[in-house]
Amino acid sequence: TFNGHTNKVYGIEFSPFNDSRYLCSGSYDKTIRLWDIETSKSLHVFNGHENTVWCVDISPLQSNNNKDDNNNNVFFKTQ
């Protein structure tokens, strides 16, 4: 169970890297959340959208796959 959004979720996307460990979700609550699917924890909330977030996408070209580095950067693309 993933708890965090305060309204319906319309879009989800699994990360194309790190064995699809991360999930991105967009909601009617006007937020995007980044989740760790192994722990079901919300890692970050992206606020500032003025309307419902209908879809999300994670760029496969901009990821940090350095296993020796604990800094897991995830980059998003907007359209």
TrEMBL record:
The keyword Acyltransferase does not apply. WD repeats lie at residues 2-45. Signal peptide: none annotated. InterPro entries: WD40/YVTN_repeat-like_dom_sf, WD40_repeat_CS, WD40_repeat_dom_sf, WD40_rpt. Keywords: Repeat, WD repeat. This is Uncharacterized protein.
